[in-house]
Amino acid sequence: MKIGLKILVFLAFSWGSLDAQTIIPGWFENLPDAPAGNMYAVGYSGKYINQSIARQAAIKKALHNMVKQQRTRLVFEIEEYSDGRLRLLNPSLELSYDESILNRIEATYATIDSSITYDGYFILISLNSLQRAPRVPSDDTGWDENKPKWTTSLPKSKNFNYGVGIVSNYSSWVRAWNDADEYARFDLGKNIKIDAHSIHAIERDNKYIIESKILQQSYDENIEGAIIVSRWYDAENDTYYSLCRQKKL
User: Fold this and answer.
1) In the prediction, which pLDDT does 218 show?
2) CA separation for the pair 89, 79 (Å, rounded)
3) Any residues with CB less than 8 A from the CB of 76 and at least 6 apart, and which?
């Protein structure tokens, strides 16, 4: 399956977004460590009249998140042009994964916890029902008032790679978290490996000398074990942050 991801941050009207997600499960904000040999993933959905449909949508999201944590191919390309007067960006992001992994997880996953709030349905699943992990209490609460350090500076670690995704001013918090999570994955991939090329060009006419620069950055990598471990919502600025972590090989 291939997923195209738009790089533009939507500046849409935000109906009630400043009040979005006032209450969330603790494991949605900070994913607990799973027991050895297992893995956790979260899913979520917006408001539904039918609770059963909301749960199904959240489970579907959790399963797709689990697949991405297993193995994901990320293709990233960005071309930046600048000449002193204007600066143009031409980004391209593509995420894909093996459908057979999704089928296998659908047959073996276990539900660890779920929570329904005013904003929507949340669910926490484990990778393998045969290695069912202990129940993790939802501990529904509000977002941490203190801005996490990782939102402005990536954690430094000898054991893990990290990436951060940031989006703002979305009318849908479900889509906002989806895009913040995906950008975090691409940022992690960029921090692992990226090829960069720079081209300088000089143009002359009777009056001016124009120096332009083209910077090309790209990578095409299969990423394994990349997990969204933390999220944070800045209500004051209507900004969503996701932190992706991968254990170094």
Assistant:
1) 87
2) 6
3) 92, 93, 94, 186, 189, 190, 194, 217, 218, 219, 220
Residue 17 near residue 169, CB atoms below 8 Å: yes
Q: Which structural domain range is residue 73 located in?
A: 2-6+24-140+156-247
User: Whole-prediction pTM value?
Assistant: 0.81
DSSP characters for 73-126?
A: EEEEEEEEEE-SS-EEEEEEEEEE--HHHHHHHHHH-EEEEEEE-SS-EEEEEE
Of 24-28, 114-118, 225-229, the one with minimum mean pLDDT is 114-118
> Do the domain assignments include residue 17?
no
Asked if pLDDT for residue 131 goes beyond 60, the answer is no
Residue 174, SS3? helix
Cα dihedral 200→193→183→79 (10° resolution): 20
**pLDDT of 4 strictly over 60:** no
Task: Compute and round to an integer the Cα radius of gyration of the chain.
Answer: 20
Q: Does a structural domain hold residue 69?
A: yes
CA distance 46 to 90: 32
Q: Is the residue at 232 inside a domain?
A: yes
- Whether 185 is in a domain gets the answer yes
Digit-coded pLDDT (tens) for 185-232:
999 999 998 877 777 666 666 666 667 778 888 889 999 999 999 999
The total number of structural domains in the chain stands at: 1
